[in-house]
Every structure is written in structure tokens, then in C-alpha cells.
Amino acid sequence: MRFDIISVLPGLLESPFAHSILQRAQKKGISEIVVHNLRDYATNKQKSVDDYPYGGGSGMVMTIPPFAACIEKLKSEREYDEIIFMSPDGETLNQAIANQLSIKKNIIILCGHYKGIDQRIRDIYVTREISIGDYVLSGGELPAAVLVDAVVRLIPGVLSDETSALSDSFQDDLLDAPVYTRPADWNGHKVPDILLGGNTPEIEKWRHEQAIERTKARRPDLLNRGE
Ligand code: SAH
């Protein structure tokens, strides 16, 4: 799976993809993440990518030509399943959206800055708009990194068995059960006995019950979702 991320601050996206699971996914050739510097597509002398808003008001607006040039170039090279704009007014990212995107082949992600991007870029090119939550960040780079991480870890072969995504929170509308590791006794704080007994079916049952209890207590809305 390939991601092309278009950004005016590509440096912000170097570290998130250069470690751990995302780095391994790229080394294994399972995912390819290419970051494009929007400024390279600016045609004016100042290499500017933003301008004053029509109608006045505060904040600058990202202009159409650099985004259009970069998107058109990418589209001439391969077919894209989605062109996603990271935006606080988009649909809120959740595990279901990450699952849907994890079976796609090629995705472009646009990162906004300042007041946002000219509405016509959204009208002409964007197929999906995704928010990472009801708060406003200064740019789309961190949201893009969040989205790519959530999606890539779901692609078969990326996670090893020990870190399988199947039991993660939200995957089955349940939060994850609590987890423990050694030592079994930390200053009197003990690991639940059931986990030490080695009875796998009983442990699975306990984990499921714990997941239901935790979901009831913290996110009852998830339990009612399927009804
Ligand atoms: N004026 C805009 C916010 C602009 S913030 C509004 O009120 O909707 C600048 C850019 O940061 C946005 O264009 C978007 O790409 C990114 N961004 C900020 N918050 C975000 C969020 N919660 N989810 C996804 N992208 C976000």
C-alpha cells in the first residue's frame, strides 16, 4: 500500500515513519510512504503556497496551483483509491475507517495549514475528509501521521503475532482487557491469579469479561452501537 502525503512542512513527517512498526512495514515493502514538499510545486517567484482570503478576515489560505500540480503529477503516475484531506470538519477517524482504508492500494493525503485550503481543491480533488478529533491543530501533518499509523498496522504482515491488532480496543467494539507482565508481585500489587494458572480457555473468558466490564464503565456507547 502506498501513501503520498503532500505537505508544506515535510520535516514534520520524517520521524513518525522512521521508527518501529511503520519503519518495519516500509522495510518489508508492505507499505510505501512518500512525502512531497508542496513548495516544490509552487510556480511563482516567491514559492508561496498561501494567499489572503477573499472577503477579508484573519489567516491565510492555501492556494490551488501547487496542490493541483502535485496531485495531477501523482495521478499521471498511478491510480489513486482516495484523495484524503485532513480537516477538523471531516468525519472523525475511528477503527472502522482505518479498517476500510487498510485494504486500499494508493492514497494521497493533503495536509492543510493556516486557515485551511481553498474550498475548490476540496470540491475538485478530495474524495474523503477525515478529522482526528474535535480540536484544532496547527497543521495536517500530525493528523496524517496518526491516520497512516492507524491504517498501516492493520495491513496483514505488518504486526507480528505477539502484537496482533485483532484484540486491540475498538476492533470488535470492545476496549482491550488489562495487561500485565513480570514481576507477578510488585510491592504487594499482584497480577490476577487467573493469568498465572496457564488455563488458556479460562484466561480468554476472563479477558473477554474484563473487556466487557471496562467497556461498560468507560465507553457504554460502544456496546450499544450494533443495535
Ligand atoms: N480553520 C480551520 C482549521 C485550520 S487548522 C477550521 O476551523 O476548520 C489548519 C490545518 O490543520 C487544517 O487545514 C487541517 O489540515 C489540519 N487540522 C487541524 N486540526 C485537525 C484535526 N482535528 N483533524 C485533522 N486535521 C486537522
Automatic annotation (TrEMBL):
* Residue positions binding S-adenosyl-L-methionine: 112, 132-137
What reactions does this protein catalyze? guanosine(37) in tRNA + S-adenosyl-L-methionine = N(1)-methylguanosine(37) in tRNA + S-adenosyl-L-homocysteine + H(+)
Entry's Gene Ontology cellular component terms? cytosol
Question: Could you name the domain of life of the organism this protein comes from?
Answer: Bacteria
Localization of this protein: Cytoplasm
Class of enzymatic activity (EC top level): transferase
The record's section on Pfam families has:
tRNA_m1G_MT
Which GO terms fall under molecular function for this chain's record?
Answer: tRNA (guanine(37)-N1)-methyltransferase activity
Which SUPFAM superfamilies does the record cross-reference, listed alphabetically?
alpha/beta knot
Q: Which keywords describe this protein according to UniProt?
A: Cytoplasm, Methyltransferase, S-adenosyl-L-methionine, Transferase, tRNA processing
Residue span(s) of domain tRNA methyltransferase TRMD/TRM10-type: 1-224
**Subunit structure and binding partners:** Homodimer.
| Official protein name in the record | tRNA (guanine-N(1)-)-methyltransferase
Species: Mucilaginibacter rubeus
